[in-house]
Amino acid sequence: MDFSYSEEQRQLADSLRRFIEERYPLETRRHANGFSRDAWRTYAEFGVLGLVIGAEYGGFDADATDTFAVQFEAGRALLPEPLIACAVMAAGLIQRHGTETQREAWLPPIAEGREIMTLAYQETCTRYDFARPSTLAQAHADGFQLDGEKVHVWHGETARSLIVSAWNASAQAVSLFVVPSTAAGVSMRPYPALDGARDAHVTLKAVRVPESAMIGDGTHGAAMLETALELGIAALCAASAGALERLIEMTAEYLNMRKQFGQPLARFQALRHRIADMAVQKELAVSMAHLAASAIDHPDAVERCRMISSAKLIVSQAARFVGEQAVQLHGGMGVTAELPVGDYFKALTAASLRLGDADHHADVLANLPAGASSRALTA
């Protein structure tokens, strides 16, 4: 399989890297508090926010390999903005499952950078199980009333709208609703996550939304969430692979600069072997990230699930190995704020936990026999 970039993908990746190097350096990103409005406008100008959105809604009809190219660069730079949560997961969910009216209402603002949307689906004590939400949606004459709590809402503080999962008693199924973060009854407790994102704990008390806020027909919310999570995992694997590449580059540069016994540390064979081991793990992560991207449009749900969970498992394991090695090879400097190695280690650790950790995806693979349906459809 050919994983090389097309000319358009290379141009987009190069443009994004030049912007990061010239106008959005690490120190600026560190002080962005999880979001930069200027950077977000630039992403919209580059077309990054509309990659998964159809051309008729202001997007570019891009495929998963285009998303890989962007997220790989975003991961290399540890871009703090909700590129995956909003421009991949939320936009991809609406593009694939929203009605025509919903696509026209929500996709153009996302592509133009005017709307920031994220998923609110995780709940207390459920870990990564999203198929049995305790949040309830009660039907009323003018729409629905939502009551419940959502935890670990990725970029919750930044989002202007939330895609909330709830048990719809009238449909006896999980339904998804677009809820403005400023709607009456929505309270948000933001907090900084390990990777610098501003996540949130969201409480919904008697939140009224119109029927038009429900995505699709309200009976396939779990399957819709599955789609969004698969898109997010593939993008997160690509971002992690990019971060791994940059972390190894920084570690090699440090070993060439730092001297011991009158010569650079890079001259010591044992340390060179450790860098080689890190490079092997990085290449494995890149290959699996490509596999996840290629799986997005796979027609078989079981095989798609197997490929994506395998990628997340292996990329998470590679992230832990490379991150730990990088910190150790930097010595005492590896745990200081002076060098960016700590930023990358924390970001990779957070990415390993988001959208299912290694143990979760190992369980998914162990419980996915041949001929089984996908996770969402069997839940």
TrEMBL record:
One Gene Ontology term of the molecular function aspect: acyl-CoA dehydrogenase activity
Domain Acyl-CoA oxidase/dehydrogenase middle residue range list: 121-200
Domain of life of the organism encoding this protein: Bacteria
The Acyl-CoA dehydrogenase/oxidase N-terminal domain, residue ranges: 6-113
Cofactor field: FAD
Entry keyword set: FAD, Flavoprotein, Oxidoreductase
Sequence ranges assigned to domain Acyl-CoA dehydrogenase/oxidase C-terminal in this UniProt record: 220-363
Keyword field contains Oxidoreductase: yes
CDD domains (alphabetical): ACAD
PANTHER family: ACYL-COA DEHYDROGENASE (PTHR43884), ACYL-COA DEHYDROGENASE FADE28 (PTHR43884:SF20)
Family in the record: Belongs to the acyl-CoA dehydrogenase family.
The name this protein goes by in its record: Acyl-CoA dehydrogenase
Organism of origin: Caballeronia fortuita
